[in-house]
Amino acid sequence: MRVADLIVHDAAMAVRERGRFTLALAGGRTPLAAYARLAAASGMPWARTHLFWSDERCIPPDNPDSNFGAAAGVLVSRVPIPPDHVHRIRGEAEPREEARRYESVLREIVRGDPPRLDVILLGVGEDGHTASLFPGSPALDEQAHLVVAVDPPPGVAHQRITFTLPLILAARSVVFLATGAAKANAVARVLLAHDEAMPATRALAARGRVVWVLDEEAARDLSDAIKEQGRQAWVRQTPPAV
Fold first, then answer.
1. Which pLDDT score, from 0 to 100, does residue 241 have?
2. Maximum Cα–Cα distance across the chain
3. Which of 203, 169, 207 is nearest to 187 (CA)?
4. What is the DSSP letter of 80?
5. How confident is the model at residue 157, as a pLDDT?
6. What are the tens digits of pLDDT across the range 185-217?
7. Which structural domain, as residue segments, surrounds residue 87?
């Protein structure tokens, strides 16, 4: 329940302080269990929540690989969120035009320059990519745009639309989720070595809180001391959900 509890807590605080809560969901399969728990959680202010996606594959929403489609099945369709508060990336549209449209939507709804989302959920790939910011991609150095279309590296399916680092770094909270032994090396290279070749490392410079949620396998290459520091930091930063 930890990720769901964090989101519910931050949502309640955002609504008290700013009247609404803005959340960007991560793609992939790793966060789906957390989304299912969030759908069942009590106290979530869905009527005042706006949902975004940190990246999307350039495919229709009914494609099995769609990030929106996956989240819709376990979360969006199960909660009382107003339909006009669900801001999906239109993966079926022309990618560069859609990136421009989505950036306009973000700027219209989310306050700040750059806009400050309350929580951005992110994953990390075995190559250290996060959102759809891949190692060596020119999108890593993008400063003018908050959302861009990117071509994937060889062996990765589908063109992508992704948040860029200026938007990620502005968030009030960035939450990474990683599970499984296949992610252990990437997690260690980011958190121990601060390896700049890993795009996820760049997100450590976020203005707000940065939280990593790992299972034992993904954390296996971290020292016991670092794991314990992480557990204590989690306790300090995430009081019980309200």
1. 36
2. 48
3. 203
4. -
5. 86
6. 999 999 999 999 999 999 999 999 999 999 999
7. 2-237
Are 134 and 199 a contacting pair, CB within 8 Å?
A: yes
Measured between alpha carbons, how far is 172 from 232 in angstroms, rounded to an integer? 20
Rounded CA-CA distance 219/112 in Å is 34
Angle of helix 32-40 relative to helix 2-18, nearest 10 degrees? 60
- Which residues in the chain come in under a pLDDT of 50? 235-236, 238-242
| Distant-in-sequence, close-in-space partners of 79: CB < 8 Å, separation ≥ 6 | 38, 39, 44, 46
Beta bridge partners of 177: 123, 213
The answer to the question of residue 65 being in a domain is yes
**Whole-angstrom distance, CA of residue 79 vs CA of residue 47:** 10
Q: What is the DSSP letter of 59?
A: S
Q: Which H or E run contains 123?
A: strand 119-123
Task: Count the domains in the chain.
Answer: 1
What is the rounded distance in angstroms from the CA atom of residue 76 to the CA atom of residue 71? 6
Phi, psi torsion values for 20, nearest 5 degrees: -165, 170
Place of tokens 């992508």: 160
- Model-level pTM greater than 0.90? yes
Q: Per-residue b/e over 111-137, b at no fewer than 16 CB within 10 Å? A: eeebbbbbbbbbbbbebbbbbbbbeeb
CATH number of the CATH domain containing 146: 3.40.50.1360
Percent of residues in the chain assigned helix, strand, coil, to nearest 5: 40, 20, 40
Mean pLDDT of the chain: 92
HSE-CB at 202 with a 13 A cutoff on CA atoms is 24
Q: Is 151 buried (19+), middle (13-18) or exposed (0-12) by CB count in 10 A?
A: middle
